[in-house]
Amino acid sequence: VEASIPEPQRKAWLEHQTSGFKDKDGFETEVVRHVETTLARSMYNCDEQAAYSACSLAFRDRLILEWNRTQQRQTFADSKRVYYLSLEFLMGRALDNAMLNIGQKDVAKAGLAELGFRIEDVIEQEHDAALGNGGLGRLAACFLDSLASLNYPAWGYGLRYRYGIFKQEIIDGYQVEVPDYWLDFNPWEFPRHDVTVDIQFYGHVTKRTDDNGKTIATWDGGEIVKAVAYDVPIPGYATPSTNNLRLWSSKAASGEFDFQKFNSGDYENSVADQQRAETISAVLYPNDNLDRGKELRLKQQYFWVAASLYDIVRRFKKSKRAWKEFPEQVAIQLNDTHPTLAVVELQRILVDLEGLDWDEAWGIVTNTFGYTNHTVLPEALEKWSVPLFQHLLPRHLQLIYDINLFFLQTVERKFPKDRDMLGRVSIIEEAQPKMVRMAHLAIVGSHKVNGVAELHSDLIKTTIFKDFVEVFGPDKFTNVTNGITPRRWLHQANPRLSELISSKTGSQNFLKDLTELAKIEHYKDDPDFRKEWAEIKYANKVRLAKYIKKTTGVDVNPSALFDVQVKRIHEYKRQQMNIFGVIHRYLTLKSLSPEERKKFQPKVSIFGGKAAPGYWMAKQIIHLINAVGAVVNNDKEIGDLLKVIFLEDYNVSKAEMIIPASDLSEHISTAGTEASGTSNMKFVLNGGLIIGTCDGANIEITREIGEQNIFLFGNLAEDVEDIRHNHTYGSHTVDPDLVKVFEAIEKGTFGEPNDFMGMISAVRDHGDFYLVSDDFHSYIETQELVDKAYRDQEGWITKSIESVARMGFFSSDRCINEYAEGIWNIEPLPIKDQ
Ligand code: 73E
Hints:
Shape: globular
Strand order of the largest sheet: 7-10-11-4-1-12-13-17-18
Strand content: 15-25%
EC number: 2.4.1.1
Cofactor: pyridoxal 5'-phosphate
Keywords: Allosteric enzyme, Carbohydrate metabolism, Glycosyltransferase, Pyridoxal phosphate, Transferase
Oligomer: single chain
Bound molecules: ligand 73E
GO biological process, one term: glycogen catabolic process
CATH topology of the largest domain: Rossmann fold
Largest sheet: 9 strands, mixed
Distance between the termini: 23 Å
CATH superfamily of the largest domain: Glycogen Phosphorylase B
Family: Belongs to the glycogen phosphorylase family.
């Protein structure tokens, strides 16, 4: 490992080794010490769980040293910091990542072996940190990895949910949700009981005029909840930089519980305050791409934002600089609209608490914030009712009205006669009740707004934020195409492929500069290289096949084409189209003679993903996939020609196993609906090909890897509106192949047809909003092209190698550098003067 560390990180790396383990004996000593003292167990009684705990504690000790030094270095340098505010951080497991980023997994492997453990089994003991729903939360986690690896002075701020995203069980084909209590033993977090912030809710506002005629607002009364900081170290790859993720946990401000109530015999109520306060950070809302407007969610948002800003401002104030320098020291990125209250809270701090003039304060605020939009789906755009706001955050509502007033005045000056324009861009929607539009507030309060892939960034400029382009000019809006960390999604998830690549590129430098992947294209005709390439994919498929057998009892043939769709279940992502396609394939197979069937490409269709608990249609889709599997997998005539698998409880650590094992993955959203997608990048980086629509980052992936290496199909985003219009006002006929699929379902081929009528009538009777029927024929035809291409194994391997070689652009390192230069105006901190 050491020899392959790139210059100029090498020097720092060597220095870094002094805080790593000297050798496996040094590591073992630490593990044994933790088992015997920290865990108070004997080595004779050390199971895999204890080995995991001790191993984590040993690595954690190493991390802490660098973490402290990194924080000292950042404080000493006094340079600008970036704060990434995200309500979700989908981190997955920490131990494997820490071992690899520190560069001492080999040492741990040898040490654990001597103690009688396989490192893979030890790693498996860790519970995923699942504080997120899907792509948005995982993006935040990839960004933290890149920020640390590139030595940027950066902090993440989030909520420490007691329950992360629920665990999914499949019982009789239905999704059942089980709470994810993950904090029993978490060696990766550090409670900071000394770092607390009092957060106020409810109450009332009084205004008075001071001697200079200035209006002073004070917010009194209501209730106070305490925020307690928990810190998580974020190790960079091949650098000593270790950044901080700070998660806030809620506690009653009054202390333990109400002794008065307790002493007066009111035992039951004595803990009620405590519990009510703790509810705020108790649970992650399990909705992806959906806003439900619940009061507790708004409470979560303010609690987290107010604590984070207090912390950021407290740090700035220590520097004794003038307020106008705030944006030169602090950049805050809003991960979607969830933290938008931060805009209002900073204005409140500056005007109400620090006494700045409105305009000066507002200049500071807008120069500090950047806003990333992740979705155009109307049901996901956050709105809060004005009465709710008035009740929970009365002063913030006043400030929002003032922000809106001044903003609308500038709009009116620019477009004097356009009253409609004022209504359209207003932060307040004139509805019953009135609503606060958080995206409008985020745009008005930020200096840059970005989308997450080119098509998406164009779409927001021409559709949902069109008027704001007129108001602010086009330069405020920009694109930063998403990326993924190659450390976790290649090196950690697919160690053999990573090793093969480094044997050809000459070092592991490609993990720091992913464009170096281009070098492997020289070997695409090298027979040994190709053979090993194919063997690695096969071995990954064998591993997944074993897992499928273990968890579902179904035998799948690793030589079959593995066709994978794993992501949150959502109508716009169109898992329903995939399963209709599978049914079509099954019906076709059944209609063939045994001889004809032999010519067919054997396939395993693999699905995985959670449905939001209240999303009825998504749950129906899961049920149909399982019902089809139950029939197809037991059909003796079909055998290995088709298997349908639903993998329970898809999460980050399962993704690390599934993604390297795919031949083909599906990214088939209705054009214009998937802002970017990031698993598409992960699959291609692991040598899988894609079937997909012209949507999100699929478009840029195509541009990079070449049209010959991707299977694109379906209608284009620019035509979707007209097609929908036609569904409603023109003639709407269902694709004939799809009609046959519906007939099979309605005949009861897959059990009680009524269970699936929602999915059928959405297409047939309710306007087919997601264009399933319109794209079905093109989807089926393209699947046939896939079969044909896969039968030419040599051609397939060439496509696979070429694609990986051309994926350099999709590193989250590139992405973070673009944010740093174009939005945050921040530089990496050199590590040489440590
Ligand atoms: O296309 C993905 C994108 O790759 C998008 O759907 C997802 O963000 C990913 C990262 O940019 C996303 N999630 C949400 N909005 N967009 C969301 C909205 C509300 C709650 C939770 C998640």
